Amino acid sequence: MESADRAARIEAVADASADDDRLVTVAVAHDESLGSMLERVEEAHAKAEYLDGRASEPLREAYEAAARALRDVGETPADGLVVYAGVFDGDSETFVFADPPGRVEESRFEHGNAFVTEPLEGGGTGTATVALVVVERGGAALGRLDESGVTALETLDSDVPGKTRAGGQSADRFRRRREERKREFFASVGEAAGRVFDDPDAVALGGTDVTVAAFREGEHLPGRLASRLAGTYAVSHADPSGLDELASKARGDVTSLDAEVREALAEFFERLPDGEVAYGRETVDDALTYGAVERLLVAETVPASERETYAKRVEDEGGKLVVVPRDVAGGDRFVEGFDGVGALLRFPVE
């Protein structure tokens, strides 16, 4: 299924309800056998056959539909499987997620008057992908950190001259030329990063403190990468060993960044029914104008130029920007249902 269709099905599952316990949730963990879960569902269906009364018919039908869906899938997909089955207004509905938005870590089999949505909200697809950028006066190194470890992608040599001890006008000219060469080199590093890194979950920037500060303040990283900067770190060498050092120092902050996104998105959905959020470009624009935004959530699907504008506006108002990847739990729902722009508010805006 395409992501838009998956988002619509997730929305339907979350909104489903029944007058009695007739909605069946089946989750199969990524590392568990689908066959053993099928046996549990078939056993529950067989027991339900002995229940009396028309009230039990929808539950029996839901069990049967869930078992049928499990048989159709055949074996546990790489990230697990979630199946929802129920009867609404006399019609049987089944939702099968063989491509859940997050890895299913725990098997569940329940029935109730609502579906259990936690299997679609937790987990994740493994280690975040982190863009590694080490920049120094003498060169730069670009690499990637993911579940397989650190991979060096590109190195760049610099022709920025070292410092001179000469005095007078010649020293001033040398200093100006050196600064110009440094800006040109930093720009080339930013261009290379934009070319090499497609869509990382986070960015880590390393080098000596002075160089990293100058690179960052010069805004040389493309906006889509700058908005995902997890932090800056003291690293001594712009080579593969420097990439390893940067990855080691950045891991904890990247994990925290991922947790921050998940927490902000979960809070957005939790506060949604009480009207304590804003969503959609026009409504969020009004909230920003009134200084009401505490945290601004912007999906990665929003163009980089727009994200940069949002970042400046919310920071000017003392708020914080949170970039939401589409593949984080709830990310698809946020993109499809809320235009990829939402805000946690300090106070309501009428």
UniProtKB/TrEMBL annotation:
Per the UniProt record, the lineage of the source organism begins with:
Archaea, Methanobacteriati, Methanobacteriota, Stenosarchaea group, Halobacteria
Report the subcellular localization.
Answer: Cytoplasm
The keyword NAD is assigned to this record: no
Q: Which domain of life is it from?
A: Archaea
Which Pfam family is one of those matched by this entry?
A: eRF1_3
Identify the PANTHER family for this entry.
Answer: PEPTIDE CHAIN RELEASE FACTOR SUBUNIT 1
Q: Which UniProt keywords apply?
A: Cytoplasm, Protein biosynthesis
Q: Which InterPro entries match?
A: eFR1_2_sf, eRF1_1_sf, eRF1_2, eRF1_3, eRF1_Pelota-like_N, Peptide_chain-rel_eRF1/aRF1, Ribosomal_eL30-like_sf
Question: What is this protein identified as?
Answer: Peptide chain release factor subunit 1
Give residue ranges for domain eRF1/Pelota-like N-terminal.
10-121
Q: Which Gene3D superfamilies match?
A: 3.30.1330.30, eRF1 domain 1, eRF1 domain 2
Single GO MF annotation = translation release factor activity
Q: Which residues form the eRF1 domain?
A: 130-250, 261-349
Provide the species name. Halarchaeum rubridurum
Is Cytoplasm one of the keywords UniProt gives this record? Answer: yes
Q: What is its main location?
A: cytoplasm
Q: Which family does it belong to?
A: Belongs to the eukaryotic release factor 1 family.
